[in-house]
Amino acid sequence: MNELDMNEQRTHATSTWRVFDDITYKKIEGNTVTDFLAIIRDARSATEDTIKPFVTMAPCGGPIAFVYKKSEAKSNDTKYTIIIDNLPNHRPQVKQFDRGVVVFVDWTINEDLLLVTEDGKYHIIDIFFYDSNNDKSRQLSESVSTITSACTFKSNQGTGLVALTKNQESFIAVKNVYSPIIQMITLGVDIRSPISAWCVIDHADITIAYAYDNNIATCSATSLRRDQQTIPGITDVIVKLVSSSNYKSIAMLKDNGDVLIGLKENIGQPQSFILKYTCNNNKVKITDIAWSGSDTVIGIRSASKTWFDLLVINGKHSLPMTEKSRQAITDDTMCYTSTVWLSTEIDGIRIISGRALDFFQRLPDEIYKVLDLMSKSPGAKLYEAYMYYKYENQMAERFLQELKSSGSSYGLEEAVKECIAAASNEHDPPTQKLLLKSALFGRSFLSVNLSNPTASIRPAVSVINDLCTNTIRNLQLVNNLQHISISILITYKQFELLGTRILIDRLLRRNLHEFATCVTKLLRMPAEEGENRILVQWAVQKLNDPANTNEELIADTIRVRLADVPGIPFIDIIRAAYTAKKFIVVERLLDVKVSLSDQIDMLLTLNKKQEALQKALSYGDTDLALYVLMRMKSSSGVNSTDFNLQLAKLKSLPLSLLLQCLEERDRNNLHDEMRKQNSGERERIGYSHIVQRFTTALTTSDQKSELTSASKLFREIKNDSSAQLVDEETRLITKQDELEKKLQTIQLKGFSLSLILVIKDIGGLKFKPMQKKNAWVQLLEFGKKPSSPIGYEPFVDVCIRSQKMEEARRFLDQTIYSSKLDHERIPYMFAKVQMVDEAINSAIKLRSIDALHFIESKCQLSEANSTKIQQAKDKLQDYGVNPLKNVFSFLKS
């Protein structure tokens, strides 16, 4: 190896660079695609004229759609052919569309094809058969008969759509085409000329800029502001407006071929648009423009049907055009010999022409700083040092010494980071390897402090190690995605934008389950987000595949493949099978690792209510049984009498559950039906009245009515002892009601008879009247009297309800009430009055986990208190499992 080899490698790294108007760009040749024009060219036409097709590419290197009508078709013909290319192994798909006259075609961020027809509808087509629910048509507005143009915009909420009505009085917008909420946006400006161009300039509030004559105005879905501006000196019609990928800049094309660029925020201000290129009335002019990322505009200029020039216009700054820059743009062009279509990406632009699919971008600064021959950045020095080291040249030591002695103590660290950043922005694998090896070369010198080798390892090394590992792993993935068998022509920046979940979805759409599984393992994704989700989607695609018609075979295939895989949510597969109307698959998979509640839900969905009820009862789950019964009762076609008779036949149904299913009138009807069929049911009915009294919130009179009915039934069957107990309960609640009214105190129902008598004798529970009179001093004195039979917590509760927190805290004064307080309730009382430390200490002293849980739910805890509670709970749980555990551990230590 010699210096010549080293220079060749350096030259290779910059061989794709080109300079346009003193700015460096690069073009990367991608995979070949189908020559679309060759397909639709009319062989009988001497001029080889074609019907103008719609051509669009999905973002982040996705598939390409080519939509066209046959050349002999009439203008109002609605039969279109759709060709989808840039698919795995370059196997194009062909589809037919006949739902209307197409005015716009684009892709959603989910890689579904979106077609807008002039009848005011948009159509989502799932080209991969990934989710049949997405393949549908939607009406933009019932009041709109026709539209003339449309465009999409991408946001965090999904893919949005805006359309212009034919009468040009308003725009129609939806923020998410999958869950549309229609918005009408009025122009707000009285225009007398037709709108010649428009675009979305802000996706957050759907702000639209539109042009008529030589004017530009804006309108928005949420703002009342309407900016309007006349472009001075412009007499030509504005034919196109385009937003940059970050929605900060706008490019304008006039019909004379001039290109202007401005900032969105400056619309409405003088000279907000600056002329960047003019054709000087040349007959060969720019006919279309598109943004490359957010810093460059590409213009298409056609001299003939077989020659197309792409002009590169700097859109990164607002400097006006000079004669030198205009001449540089005119002379330095990219040439193609077939019709050109452009597709904007966040970091560049895709160029489709003939069988070519190229990617063009402004050279990222990260690459320029390292690979430019004149660069003096730390990354460039480290790259040079590695190249010299690779070819055993002593110059490597010189460059390393420069990095060591640089003004910044972190010069070498910065150099490593710059080389990693350059590698992630580079597209050429050999150059990526050189940059990554340079970074690893520099990292090896970071293991020790260069100025003091005996010192400790630098803490930044672990951070750089992670950065190196992640970048190498992600670049390996990005490079593999571009292989012809995958055909996702994604860049590193686009990969970061997509994220791993969306990338996995795109692989699954292409039926690349095995490769997707390898990706999840490479990225070390959790099973529920990675491999298990892939297996579920594999099963769903088995269900949705039109070629699979044998439902029993589908169910057996899924069961055999997935039954032994832990963590598979079979209920998701079952729901997909139900949606696909594969009911045999549903029934065969219902008992495979599916929870009881999900099984019952699906049985009810299948209208198998009796089977659902029996399954709930067989497992003894009364809540699910109640749920099934209520669903049965609310079903259409089931009258009350039939439902009651069904309940009467269910001898295994618990009585309390039976009563919960019935309203009062239905319960009485059930009792009548039960007595008619069997007189021996009277005892069961009597107990049902008692259960109803205790389990339902009833008034005193209703409770006494229930108990009276029960007593009557017990006497009819000669059960006098039960009847006597019921009568005593009736008299007790009568006395309780009288005492409550007399004392105007808390509710006494539920207390024992002896406790009620004690309360009555001491005239207790006077604190509520005191509270009503704000007699807090008297209440405090009352609390100092001999112990109350109901404790002192009610005193605290009354004060808290009256927002008298200080008064409540006085009842916890240990010097006065220590002998009167219920010590098991002390933690709860401290928590109620927000005395956090005291609450925690008392709970720990009592070894009460329940009290600690109560404190967590009731108090605002500091980080220290939260840690203290968690440690206490851990110790108490250990103690509960084995009280001698701590003793044993102490003896072993």
TrEMBL record:
Keywords, ordered alphabetically: Endosome, Lysosome, Membrane, Protein transport, Transport
Any one GO cellular component localisation term in the record: late endosome membrane
GO-annotated biological processes: endosomal transport; intracellular protein transport; vacuole fusion, non-autophagic
Main location: membrane
A single GO molecular function term of this UniProt record: actin binding
Superkingdom of origin: Eukaryota
Subcellular location field: Late endosome membrane; Lysosome membrane
Membrane topology of this protein: Peripheral membrane protein
Pfam family name, one: Vps16_N
Domain Vps16 C-terminal: 569-754, 765-873
Record InterPro entries: VPS16, Vps16_C, Vps16_N
Keyword Secreted appears in the UniProt entry: no
Domain Vps16 N-terminal: 50-448
Role description: Plays a role in vesicle-mediated protein trafficking to lysosomal compartments including the endocytic membrane transport and autophagic pathways. Believed to act as a core component of the putative HOPS and CORVET endosomal tethering complexes.
Similarity section: Belongs to the VPS16 family.
UniProt-recorded name of the protein: Vacuolar protein sorting-associated protein 16 homolog
